[in-house]
Amino acid sequence: MNRTALVTGASSGIGRATAVALAGRGYRVIGTSRHPEVIAPEQRVAGVEYVALDLCSDDSIEGLADLLAGVDVLVNNAGESQCGPLEDLPLDAVRRLFQINVVGPVRLAQLVLPGMRERGHGRVVMIGSMLASFPLAYRSSYVAAKAALKGFSTGARHEFSPFGVWLTTVEPGSIRTGISERRTAYVAPDSPHRRDFETMLAALDRNERAGTPPERVAATVVAAVEARRPKPRYAVGSNAPVVFAARRFAPAALVEKLTHRRHDLRR
């Protein structure tokens, strides 16, 4: 195999597990991090090349243009997890979230796709979230960002499939990555939503601590990358086959109710 893969956010969690999995399959793997120089030796993956990328910086993204021109597989994994009642979310925080979770990844795709198209082969994998399919209260900004990312991927995939280039989205459920320690949260001290918000947040952290290991998500990413015709969406974790089947047959109101009950919201 003589394929090059670039994985964003490769220093931990799903990104690191994906870098390990792809390197083990013989890919040349380039992993990005905002500060690759501070990645601890035990967190570095043998054989992976690390480069700096700050998705909040247009200059940082454009600085990878030459590198991306030769990439065969792009895994857009890096992102921010955000939560808070809609009326308490600062607009600057929402803008930052969309820059990191949507605009930055879309620009990386724009930079990588022409080379893939010219070579007649390529894969772009967006790491989304099952919350894009099962929206949750107090996660509206994150739900919207992941739904937007999936929309770009699904909408554009038929533009490039005639050239042997496929875009797909992997939607993880609750994954054991430690992301709860890095999630940004916004709630006003006197917010009428505070009690329910804190209830949801505690359940979210509990579910993630008991969630699927990131290696299982990485295996799903590899399956999507190596499929002859990747599906538009792959879901993994949180009993994905059962809950997606239920969504097809159960009333929407019931699915919404069950989603919120999983997070201890009973109303």
From TrEMBL:
It holds the Pfam family adh_short. GO terms for molecular function: oxidoreductase activity. The keyword Nuclease does not apply. Keywords: Oxidoreductase. It comes from the Bacteria. The keyword Glycosyltransferase does not apply. Belongs to the short-chain dehydrogenases/reductases (SDR) family. PANTHER family: NADPH-DEPENDENT 1-ACYLDIHYDROXYACETONE PHOSPHATE REDUCTASE. This is Putative short-chain dehydrogenase/reductase. It comes from Spirilliplanes yamanashiensis. The lineage of its organism: Bacteria, Bacillati, Actinomycetota, Actinomycetes, Micromonosporales.
